[in-house]
Automatic annotation (TrEMBL):
Name the UniProt record assigns to this protein: Dihydroorotase
Gene: pyrC
UniProt GO MF annotations: allantoinase activity; dihydroorotase activity; zinc ion binding
Catalysis: reaction(s): (S)-dihydroorotate + H2O = N-carbamoyl-L-aspartate + H(+)
EC number(s) given by UniProt: 3.5.2.3
CDD domains noted in UniProt: DHOase_IIa
Entry keywords, A to Z: Hydrolase, Metal-binding, Pyrimidine biosynthesis, Zinc
Residues annotated to bind substrate: H63, L64, R65, N95, N279, H310
Chain ranges of the Dihydroorotase catalytic domain: 50-239
Length: 430
């Protein structure tokens, strides 16, 4: 049994409690109320005074690298990193080696997760065989095996007719298509955002239209097929405007952006900082403000991390040779609190919606809620704690964080998944 004392519960913008106690028995919340009787011999007692208790987080876009790239990350290490950041459900992308493009690979991911992961890992299947963009993968078989969405993330499905067919099949099997929107004819050879910083550094730029043209194409295809398209890692102002227009049309479109896109700009790459090399690239201050406004208005539905671990040797090279991507599990919540709540006056309950309610709705899951009789999936966070992101404190195998050296406000102190303590007072126990 676990007893959390003096908890201030935040389930959503509209559901906040005064200080109360939470009693957890086995994997469920048995009782919520004031002055629940303590029994130190039979229960673990956690004092949440001055802190917030909220449902644990869900990430619908991450990379665990297994199988094939375990030197960067694997299901066990990635899951531990996610748990450290408060995520108890994560959806891993299929760009592994071999790719997750058939039912056997989906089954492998699920089996490995049951074997080594302390949290829930849900596979995303590929749209096309081998991620080659030439032939549809076994969408129905993968769905039957447990894939919760399909995506060729890391690559764009450039063939519009193939993408249309993928949407038609996804509608039949009731799963979303997660679209990596990048016109490779425009982005080929690019390193960073095309603009002022690319000019002064001499690095080849990627025009913003490389993203927005495919966003427009996929919205139109979704409009015609009436399928669910999910636009992932949105980075430009134009993409936000297109998604807003699509929602006004009644298109079945959802979208996410990532913590680094609502907080950092292209200027992070000055000095040739390869940890700030991501795809799509970091954009301008105007784009950051548009993304924040999109989150505020509900145009962008949720936050995903796009956790993309790379070995140090893949980042410690010339900028044009460096791999794209940043890790994100362990800093996501703190970045959102720092840049959305502190600096842009978002309600703390809005963060719960962005990290719990909305991502789970997109993939067809019920939200985690702190109520009697529900599964005990929750986090305890200290909103006042300030901390510096340092390599030595990162749980992930890879240390390529775009936030290294930055001071963030708020910290995930305790994480409970299905009644099991994975992290307590900042110490990971899984």
């Amino acid at each position: 049994m676990i007893l959390i004392k003096n908890a201030q519960i935040v389930n959503s913008i509209h559901d906040k409690s005064e200080k109360t106690d939470i009693l957890i028995v086995d994997d469920k919340i048995e009782k919520i109320g004031k002055n629940i009787e303590e029994n130190p011999e039979k229960m673990i007692i956690i004092d949440a005074s001055g802190k917030y208790v909220m449902p644990s987080f869900t990430d619908i876009h991450c990379h665990l690298r297994e199988p094939g790239f375990e030197y960067k990350e694997d299901i066990k290490s990635g899951s531990r990193s996610a748990a450290a950041g408060g995520f108890t459900t994560i959806c891993c992308m299929p760009n592994t080696n071999p790719p997750v493009d058939n039912r056997a690979m989906v089954a492998y991911i699920k089996y490995r997760a049951r074997e080594v992961s302390p949290i829930e890992v849900l596979p995303v299947g590929a749209i096309t065989k081998g991620l080659l963009g030439e032939e549809l993968a076994e969408i129905g078989f993968m769905k039957d095996e447990g894939a919760i969405a399909i995506s060729d993330d890391g690559k764009c499905v450039m063939n519009a007719n193939l993408m249309r067919n993928a949407l038609l099949y996804s509608k039949d099997f009731s799963i979303p298509v997660i679209s990596h929107c990048e016109d490779t004819n425009l982005s080929e050879g690019g390193q960073i955002n095309l603009g002022y910083v690319s000019t002064i550094t001499g690095l080849r730029g990627i025009p913003r239209e490389a993203e927005s043209t495919i966003v427009a194409r996929d919205i139109l295809l979704a409009k015609e097929t009436k399928a669910h398209i999910h636009i992932t890692h949105v980075s430009t102002k134009e993409s936000v405007e297109l998604i807003k227009m699509a929602k006004e049309w009644g298109v079945n479109v959802t979208a996410d952006t990532c913590p680094h896109y609502i907080s950092l700009t292209e200027e992070e790459v000055l000095g040739f900082n390869t940890n700030a090399k991501v795809n799509p690239p970091l954009r301008t201050r105007e784009d950051v403000e548009a993304l924040i406004e999109g989150l505020k208005e509900g145009v962008i539905d949720c936050i995903s991390t796009d956790h993309a671990p790379h070995h140090k040797d893949e980042k410690n090279v010339e900028f044009n040779l460096a791999a794209s991507g940043t890790i994100g599990f362990e800093t996501a919540f703190s970045v959102l609190l720092t840049y959305l709540v502190e600096k842009n006056r978002f309600d703390i309950g809005k963060i719960v919606e962005l990290l719990n309610h909305n991502p789970r709705k997109i993939i067809g899951l019920s939200p985690n809620v702190i109520e009697e009789g529900k599964k005990a999936n929750l986090v305890i966070v200290d909103l006042k704690k300030r901390w510096e992101v340092k390599e030595e404190n990162i749980v992930s195998k890879s240390k390529n964080s775009a936030f290294l050296g930055k001071i963030l406000t708020s910290y995930v102190e305790t994480v409970i998944h299905n009644g099991k303590i994975l992290k307590k007072d900042g110490v990971l126990n899984c």
